[in-house]
Structures are given as C-alpha cells and as structure tokens.
Task: structure prediction
Amino acid sequence: MSAALVHEQPVDETQTVNTLVHAYLKMLANERGSSAHTLRAYDRELTSFATFVSEKYGGDQHPAKIDHRQIRVYLGTLYDRGLAKSSAARALAAIRSWFKWLARQHVVEQNVAKLVATPKLPKHLPRVPTIEEMNLVVDSVTDEVASWPARDAAILELLYGCGIRNAELTGLNLNDIHWANDAILVRGKGSKQRLVPLGDAAATALRTYLAERSSRMAAAEASTPALFVNLRLRGLKQGSEARLTTRSVGRIVKRIAVLGGLPSDVHPHTLRHAFGTHLLEEGADLRAIQELLGHERLSTTQRYTQLTTAQLEKVYDQTHPRAK
Result:
C-alpha cells in the first residue's frame, strides 16, 4: 500500500460536493505530490462539475446522492457548449478519480462514474520525426534560431537524448546531474524519482551551457539551484530562482524545430515520443524503455509499438509493389 493511502483520513460524510472537491484537491497536492499542471486540470474539471451539481440539484448536495445519469447529463452540457469528445473524456476521467477517492474514504458506496462510458475518441497517433530529422534539428541550434544557443542546445539534447518530460526538465537542479554515474536524477509524476542515463552528446551540451551559466551568475553576483534559467535571470534579485518555465521551453522547442523543418505542431513531448520510438526502432527492450520514460504501466509504453507499426505500414504502402 502506498504512503498516500496510508495517510488518507476518512472524510466527514456530511460534507457537500464543493467541500469534498476541495478536500480531494488538497490531498492531491499535499499527499500525492501531483504536479501544478495536474492540479490545475483537476481543479478546472471538478470545480465545473461541482458548479453544475450545485446549480441543478442544490448547493448542499452530497456525492452519495449523485448517480451515473446525472454525470451523463453533465457530459451532455459539455457537448452543448461545443466541447470536443476529448474534453468530455478528460472531465469524466477527473470525476471518476474523485469518486474513486470518495469510495475509498467510505463517503459513497461505489464509484458511480465507472458506469458512464468514456466518449469514443478517434484514434490519433502523433507523427514522430525520423532519426535523421531529429539529428538535423538538434544540431541546428545557432544564434540565428536561439536566444541562448548553449542553453537551448542542452534543452533539446535532454528532451530528446533522455526522453524526459517538459516539467521534469524545468524541475532539474544543478545537483541532479550525477557526473560520476553519467546520469541525471529526474522527478517524475507523483514525485517518483528515476535515474536516466546521460549520453555523450547531452553531457557535452550541458558542460558548454554550465560554463556560460556560471559566467552569467558571477556577473549577476547571484546563485540559484535551478539548472535551466531564463535569459535575463529575471526575478533572481527579488528572491526567485529564475527557473525557466515549461511555457518558455515550449516556445524554444517550437521555434528551433520549425526552423529546422519540422511541422508547426511540434512541442517538447514530440521529442519524448521520438526518444521512445527511436529506441524501439533500434531494438531496445520495451520494459527498458518503460523504465527510461518513467511510465507506471507497460501499456503506456506499448503505444510506441503502435507508432512504429503505423510508420512501417506507411512505408510498406508507399514502396511495396503489391501494396499499390
């Protein structure tokens, strides 16, 4: 049993939907160590659902009085507002998670949200750049495409060379680089930690960036534990870490990648997909890729098999004489 379950305390059954949503969000933040992105998403989805319940069924509604039909009605209101099936699916996932927790706390007898079918989504496999395309982009970081080439080159090397998430990258500190072991310590979802090998190219890029970073820190007469910092060290004098944000990393990656010839829908997670797919194409074991990516379930990693199969089918359809 996880530490999060051990510390969870029963919730007063007299509480309303609104207060129990607040209690669940507090638990996610304090006990499960959910990321800021996850907390915002759950807050948005569950607050919206709580508002719907309050307006339609009364502000003092208890979750035990909610059944699957009311949840279906709520999803219907999302469609009426023009939201896509993917948005409704995210909302349902949040509601299911909340009810699962309520059932565990004995606030409700069962997770009624499980009785609501997930909206069927069109199967969409993201396009993954080829190895040649990725090498071209990573090697193309110059003054013409980057505001701080050494830093931005290191960012691309870690995203593609280590397969880490955007939030994991921006959360790295200087002492997370384990030079003696040629690895970096990465804090993943739910505060889970893993050591990821640091390849030669990524290590070289990091050393170049760290030398420039050190010079800028010395000139500013300041210091910060954050590995990747913003260009002008904004906020450092006011006590902040000047840590680069995930939004900034997204802009950096998109600019360099698009100028390097990749489609405009590229984002940091594209590089993570490329990492996993290219390892699989080169013969890496699926469970090893699971460990490197920090996936809790092997089924998540198996998606890369689908990506590779789809690419093979495309090559076959385009090149084999019997496929035409």
The first strand starts at residue 177 and ends at 178. Residues 14 and 62 are 7 Å apart (CA to CA). Residues 36-57 form the longest helix (22 residues). Residues 1-9 have pLDDT under 50 and may be disordered.
